[in-house]
Design a protein that fits this description.
With about 130 residues, the protein is mainly beta. Helices cover about 0% and strands about 50% of the residues. It is built from no helices and eleven strands. Strands 2, 4, 5, 6, 9, 10 and 11 form a seven-stranded mixed sheet that branches. Strands 1-3-8-7 form a four-stranded antiparallel sheet, with no helix packed on it. The radius of gyration is 13 Å and the shape is globular. The N and C termini lie far apart (about 40 Å). The relative contact order is 0.31. The model has no long low-confidence stretch (mean pLDDT about 95).
Length: about 130
């Protein structure tokens, strides 16, 4: 099973940018669909973005579309989430997730992913 480690979280002012990284080890993720989810305190985990194993297709939640960009570097075995124009509502613990091949369920659901990282905290001050 692939091991995922997120990094890059921190505290930012509203309107600032941040880039999260998800480094994979144990096996290559070149054939993995990868995603980012987040969970704010007291709320359910929610889908943020996903990217196909080829990198050709991306998916975003309506709340981040146009502000966040998911990308991948299969040589570095790493997935990124570039977050622009941050808002206080973006404050959450951000999780990286992955699953081999094409998903059998919608990538917007946590059930699509079998491997998860421990999360990195993003806090946005108003």
């Amino acid at each position: 099973q692939v091991h995922l480690v997120e990094s890059g979280g921190g505290l930012r002012q509203a309107g600032a940018s941040l880039r999260l990284s998800c480094a994979a080890s144990g096996r290559t993720i070149s054939n993995y669909t990868m995603g980012w989810f987040r969970q704010a305190q007291g709320k359910k985990r929610e889908f943020v973005a996903a990217i196909s194993w080829s990198g050709d297709t991306t998916f975003y939640s309506d709340s981040v579309k146009g502000r966040f960009t998911i990308s991948r570097d299969n040589v570095r075995n790493t997935v990124y989430l570039k977050m622009n124009r941050l808002k206080p509502d973006d404050t959450a613990l951000y999780y990286c997730a992955g699953d081999q091949g094409d998903p059998v369920v919608a990538v917007t659901t946590a059930f699509a992913f079998g491997s998860w990282g421990q999360g990195t905290q993003v806090s946005v001050a108003s």
